[in-house]
Amino acid sequence: MKYSLRKGLSFGLTSAVITTLGLMVGLYSGTYSTLIVLGGILSIAVADSFSDALGIHVSEEACGELSLKEIWIATIVTFFTKFIFALTFMVPVLLFPLNVAIWICIAWGVFLIGLFSMYMAKKQGNNPWLVAMEHVFIMLVVIAITYFIGNWISNHFV
User: Residue 31 belongs to what H/E stretch?
Assistant: First the structure.
């Protein structure tokens, strides 16, 4: 896989999972509202996908190591990867009660991050389980922190 494709895919996928789950769990623990969680997912899918794509674009331009075509490939792949994977988290929220959907989404996120991490580690000759556990652990820390932030906001401001 070309560098620009790997860059866009790896960044977009990781960002989609972690930011979407972080926002979902924070909104859930603060509001318990399906509508608000769905609005958050859509907001992440649109705004953060554009933001991350532009971030990759500017970062690669600043490094000056890729051609303009390669920069645009990384930009476009980042956008669509982030956008599509963020939207996948809407499916459980639309099909299940919110408390169940959140757990399904967390399992989906663990699966995506774990699988991609293992694939990446194998390609680089690293221990796939160790790399996957490291990345999943970081994701779970983000989820836990946003859960407590949502609870804190709900208890102090609502």
Answer: helix 3-31
Angle at 82 between CA 88 and CA 49, to 5 degrees: 120
Report yes or no on whether pTM surpasses 0.90. Answer: yes
* Both structure tokens of 17: 């999972």
Residues 105-128 as b/e (b if ≥16 CB within 10 A, e otherwise) read: bbebbbebbbebbbebbeeeeeeb
DSSP code for 125: T
User: What's the confidence (pLDDT) of residue 3?
Assistant: 87
Q: What is the pLDDT of residue 119?
A: 95
CB 104 within 8 A of CB 96: yes
Q: How far is CA 58 from CA 52, 62, 72, in A?
A: 10, 6, 10
SS3 of 68-116:
HHHHHHHHHHHHHHHHHHHHHCHHHHHHCCHHHHHHHHHHHHHHHHHHH
Averages of pLDDT over runs of 10 residues in the chain (158 residues) are: 87 96 97 97 96 95 91 95 97 98 98 96 96 97 97 90
Q: Which residues contact 7 (CB under 8 A, 6 or more apart)?
A: 56, 60, 74, 77, 78
**Per-residue pLDDT at 1:** 54
